[in-house]
Every structure is written in structure tokens, then in C-alpha cells.
Amino acid sequence: QVYFVESGGGLVQPGGSLRLSCAASGRIFSFSTMGWYRQAPGRQRELVASISSSGGPDYADAVKGRFTISRDNDKNTVYLQMSSLKPEDTAVYYCNVYPNNKDMWPWGQGIQVTVSS
Question: Of the four, 1, 62, 100, 112, which is 20 to 30 A from 38 by CA?
């Protein structure tokens, strides 16, 4: 069974930093491209960053230069280091396989990130 547990979110002031972690179960992790997604109130879930099984990252334009995705295949964990946070980064953040066509892989609870003064 595949599932994902996100952690590390919280409330941070604009310009601050947070590091999200996602622990994944299942053997799929080590050979899958993984993604961090987010969903703000009233908006669709969107891909923020992805990382291939070999470690090659890719970022949405909105976070390029501010966020860094990484992974530890030995720990079945993917990370998202977020810096220079802006209020528009406020959302629930999720990790999952990328792409997750037709929600083939179940979504976790996600983790709230709130950027506010």
C-alpha cells in the first residue's frame, strides 16, 4: 500500500523559511519522480516542484529560486526547503508521485503552510 505523510508546516512571516518533509511508504518511491503540490483556498491543486528518481529537480516559475526539492531514497523521504516565503505561498502542501494521473495514488492529509505577518 502506498501512502504519504507530510510534516514541517506552520505559520511563518513573509521572508521566512520552512522545510517540509514527506515520508513515503511502498516500493514505488525509489524509482518514481516525486512532486510537491499545493492547494490554496478556492484554487485547484498545482505542482510546485518535482524531482526525478535520480535527483533531477524541476520547479514552477512561481517558486523558482526560492524553493529547493530534494530526496533521500534510503529514507523514502522527499523534502521541500522553502525560503523567501510570500503570502501567496499560503496553501496546504502535499507530496505524491508525479504525475498522479486520475489520482491513481492516494493523497495524504497534507500540511498547512501559512505566510502572514
Answer: 1
Give residue 28's pLDDT.
82
C-alpha cell at 97: 508521485
Residue 112 CA to residue 90 CA, distance in Å, equals 8
Closest to 40 (Cα-Cα) out of 19, 62, 72: 62
Cβ proximity of 36 and 95 under 8 Å: yes
Looking at every residue in the chain, the average pLDDT score rounds to: 95
Exposed e or buried b for every residue in 22-48, given b needs 16+ CB within 10 A?
A: bbbeeeebeebebbbbbeeeeeebebb
The answer to whether 98 and 50 are in contact (CB under 8 A) is: yes
SS3 for 32? Answer: coil
DSSP 15: T
Residue 27 has pLDDT above 90, yes or no: no
Distance CA 39, CA 48 (A): 10
**Each residue's pLDDT tens digit, 36-68:** 999 999 999 999 999 999 889 999 999 999 999
Rg of the Cα trace of the chain? 13
